[in-house]
Amino acid sequence: MLQLAAKEPFWKCSHCEGSNFGEDKSKGCQHCGHEYDPSDISAKVIPGGTSQTNAPRRPAVHDSSYYVPADLPSPKVVHSSPSYQRSMVSSLPSYKSSGRSGLRLDGQTLGIAAVILVIVALLGAFLFAKFHTTAHNAEFTGPSWTRSFDVQRFEVVHESDSTSNPPASAYNIDSWVTTEKKEVTRSEEYTVPKTCHHSEDLGNGFTREWDEDCSYTATRQVFDHYDYIDTTHYSYDHNEWVFYRTISESRDNFEPFWPAYNLNLEGQTVLGAERAVNYRETYTLKFDWYDKDETKFTAIYKVSEAEWHQYVVGEYYPIEVNSLGEVRNNPLQDKLNPPE
Q1: What three-state secondary structure class fits 226?
Q2: 191-219 in b/e burial notation, b at 16+ Cβ within 10 A?
């Protein structure tokens, strides 16, 4: 039951929402003349200086009486004032908004934002260093080259635990089965209890508050059953070519050659035989230049062997170098065909 701080009976007209005071309801609303409806919000004086109302509300946990000074006037129309305000309130606590608005950032959000800013800054710095170049007239001071290849050896390889079927050449095969217990779930709907609190200003200095069931349905995964999965494992031996070593040679001249080597049982496919695979070759050019303070700088440029032989040691070539020390243009083409 709601407790209302009022000094005389009243009822609220559902037609014009006007407040009417006094026991007599036969004449209808004092504002619009509409006759009294039993469903209209009304209150009567009860002992203790409070009133009892028929307004909808939830069951009270406790009741509170509100003291009204004896000198408070009892007008036909209630006026709210900072000192005395008639109000109809729920006996349960009501939760008001803090009044704060706008975006609120917590520490985690700010941390993520800071990390993103750092990543963007680093990416921007890398792109600048990669594509921002400076032009120099550099001296070609020397070539260099590297040639290498890998050696594979035909050996016995043991597979200790494989779930793939053994190859046709496998031998010493052994197998066993393992069973995995896997939990299977299903989707289930359930009700999430929630209570919504409402407040309505009646326009006459009174406030009506009530609760509403706002429960909603959600979905969750729950256990359904177990599946048992069998897997076959194998162990076996087989012969295959595996990496054994790398042979390489490097020089700072224009006379490249492939390094000499001896392969065991070359050309055969028997245990212990060797073969050469994955041939690689790199040809580079070294350019030097000086800035206005006579500080020496060096850049390395990789080219094909055919173009590599066309450079002349001691000649100057126009180069464009980025902050990473990479040559971004073709010095030979720019020397033979200067850009406009």
Answers
A1: strand
A2: eeeeeebeeeebebbbbbbbeeeeeeeee
Rounded Cα distance between 62 and 59, Å, is 9
Is the pLDDT reported for residue 48 higher than 70? no
Q: What is the token pair recorded at 294?
A: 């006579």
Q: Is 55 helix (H, G, I), strand (E, B) or coil?
A: coil
Distances (CA, A) of 58 to 196, 208, 307: 12, 11, 91
Strand ranges, E, within the chain? 3-4, 10-12, 19-21, 42-46, 50-53, 88-89, 133-162, 171-192, 195-201, 207-213, 216-251, 274-290, 296-303, 316-322
pLDDT tens digit sequence for 151-164? 999 999 999 989 99
DSSP state of 165: P
Nearest Cα to Cα of residue 205 among 95, 82, 91? 82
Decide: 63 and 215 in contact? Cβ < 8 Å.
no
Counted residue by residue, the chain has a size of 340
pLDDT, averaged across the chain: 79
Runs of H (alpha helix) within the chain: 107-131, 305-308, 331-336
Q: Determine contact, residues 90/57, Cβ cutoff 8 Å.
A: yes
Q: Is residue 17 scored above 90 in pLDDT?
A: no
pLDDT in tens, 59-72: 433 443 333 343 43
DSSP, collapsed to helix, strand or coil, labels residue 219 as strand
Residue 248: pLDDT band with limits 50, 70, 90: very high
Nearest-angstrom CA–CA distance, 230 and 253: 63
Among 92, 79, 91, which Cα is nearest to 52's?
Answer: 91
Q: By the 8 A CB rule, do 93 and 61 touch?
A: no
Interatomic CA distance for residues 147 and 261, integer angstroms:
13
Give the position of tokens 């170049």: 133
Tens of pLDDT, residue by residue over 289-312, are 998 888 899 999 999 999 999 999
- Report the largest interatomic distance among the alpha carbons of the chain, rounded to a whole angstrom: 123
